[in-house]
Specification:
Number of helices: 2
Order of helices and strands: EEEEEHEH
Shape: globular
Largest sheet: 3 strands, mixed
Radius of gyration: 18 Å
Number of domains: 1
Distance between the termini: 34 Å
Helix content: under 10%
CATH architecture: Sandwich
Number of strands: 6
Length: 192
């Protein structure tokens, strides 16, 4: 009997609960098998060169972005055929993103110029419930270039702690988490 070995540290591994659940040849297809959502769990900054990325692709019945708002606990610590806009993901880094001008394709209706979003370490996020079905059905054979838009993003391994002023501001979208609550369950184990 010849032993089978998995490749060594920092290589790619794959496992699936149902045959065909993992997309072949791409990580984030426009429509994932079984009606699952593709979500990247990233251990490096999104700006890191591809060869040094440390990430896992998860294919989930519902994305982590559907989480309800986090509540303070203890000492107050917070924790051609690809999907566009950005996939559902969680990062070890905290992301602070702002829109200066134009529209953001993952939340075209809810992210106005002058606005900003904060997704601290391991907070699931991605396209909102209105954007996901549109992007999943879009014709990806014809490029859709984002134009007349300027956005920025800061990433840090630190947890970003908003000031009391920011948390009590009338501009705070305390219902922000609701943009994902309309995501439908598409999982069908009988469908490939």
């Amino acid at each position: 009997m010849t032993p089978n070995y998995q490749s060594g540290f920092a290589n790619e591994f794959a496992t699936e609960a149902l045959p065909g659940a993992l997309p072949v040849g791409r990580n984030s297809p426009q429509r994932a098998p079984y009606g699952l959502y593709a979500e990247q769990l990233s251990g490096t900054a999104f700006t890191a060169p591809r060869h040094s990325n440390r990430r896992s692709w998860l294919y989930r019945i519902r994305p982590a972005a559907m989480h309800l708002p986090f509540e303070r606990i203890g000492n107050g610590r917070l924790q051609e055929n690809t999907f566009r806009p950005p996939w559902f993901h969680r990062n070890f880094a905290s992301e602070f993103m702002g829109l200066i001008h134009g529209a953001y394709d993952a939340k075209a209706e809810g992210f106005a110029p002058g606005g900003a979003s904060l997704h601290n370490c391991m907070s699931g996020h991605g396209p909102d419930a209105d954007t996901f079905p549109k992007a999943s059905a879009a014709d990806t054979t014809r490029p859709d270039h984002v134009t007349n838009t300027m956005a920025f993003m800061f990433e840090t391994p630190a947890v970003i702690r908003p000031t009391r002023y920011a948390l009590e501001s009338s501009q705070l979208q305390s219902e922000y988490y609701r943009c994902w609550q309309g995501l439908k369950k598409h999982f069908n184990p009988a469908q490939l």
